[in-house]
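ZP: hey, is the pyridoxal-5'-phosphate complex queued? I don't see it on the tracker
AM: it wasn't, my bad. submitting now with these inputs:
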Amino acid sequence: MGTPKGSETLIDLRSDTVTLPTEEMLEAIKAAELGDDVYKEDPTVNRLEEMAAKKMGKEAALLVPSGTMANLVSVTANTKKGDSAILEAECHIYWYELGGIASIAGVLPLPVKGVMGVMDPKDVEAAIRPRTLHSAETTLVCIENTHNRAGGTVVTPRQIEAISKVARDHGLRLYMDGARIFNAAVALKVDVREFTRHVDNLMFCLSKGLSCPIGSVVVGTEEFIEKAKRVRKTLGGGMRQAGIIAAPGIIALEKMINRLEDDHRNARLLAEGLAVIDGISVNLKTVQTNIVMLDVDGLGVEAEVFVDKLRERGVLALKVGKTRVRMVTHRGIEKEDIEKALNIIEDVAKEIRNGNL
Ligand SMILES: Cc1ncc(COP(=O)(O)O)c(C=O)c1O
């Protein structure tokens, strides 16, 4: 019972972005009160933004079409051209956003290698470039929570606090790509504000585990959001009757957060099942939320071959490295789907081990 309509037999573990909106979300879209959001006249967008700001313990919020735009808008609004920004070397901004912070924001990325997605505050401090005649002054630090390429790992409030101390001591802003911040909050069973209170601003995605079709929200001070709004407009992200995007977002914030726990439970089940299959390795320590990273090096094949073989059998996964594969749990993937997927994966691994390529 994978999510995509018309492909009921597929178990789609590529991403939590494949989730379809709930019936209630579709009804809410139909019933949404609308206006022109560029004039600030869409009551549904206004309501979502107020809700989001309150939930995150910040002054204001801004709806944008995607997580990528949210990151670009935020980095731009936090810096000026020619600045540099410290970010974790495996983060989404650095890997998967076409270098937009360099090509559009004009910001030099300074990657710092973390452990399970978490940068050591000492390394952050060492990477800071001062304002001199020669260097691109560092004005921003970016963290990612949960950390996608590290396997959905949580950056704990205490770790964020330690990084924020370095940022504060050096007069830098701290921004959080919180695309999956509610997964982090649910995993640690703490209020999301425990994470957000240590950062100046952040974004979170509505369109991942929260199941909305579109949308991310940037959150921060009124002054920052005013700036962010101007950048959003520059990028063509000023939307008119955007209440059709905000309406499911409101439902997501009201009703979809607690169910992320189901996804985490299923990811754990999947990871533990994968870990005992010959030739597949999983670092169970990194399986903290809804993402499972596995390595198929022990099977002697590249990720692409493995992923293709799974696809033939109705299980969709994502190649994220030469021998690395990502699987993500989400609404629409039930315990039975995980059990079925594990059986298929075990069969495929056996075939590969037996030389049936
Ligand atoms: C951590 C993180 N940040 C940002 C994004 C970008 O979101 P979008 O696909 O909506 O542009 C993603 C998408 O997967 C992500 O995982």
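AM: back. The pocket of pyridoxal-5'-phosphate is lined by residues 66-68, 71, 92, 144, 148, 177, 179, 205, 207, 216 (CB under 6 Å).
ZP: great, adding it to the tracker
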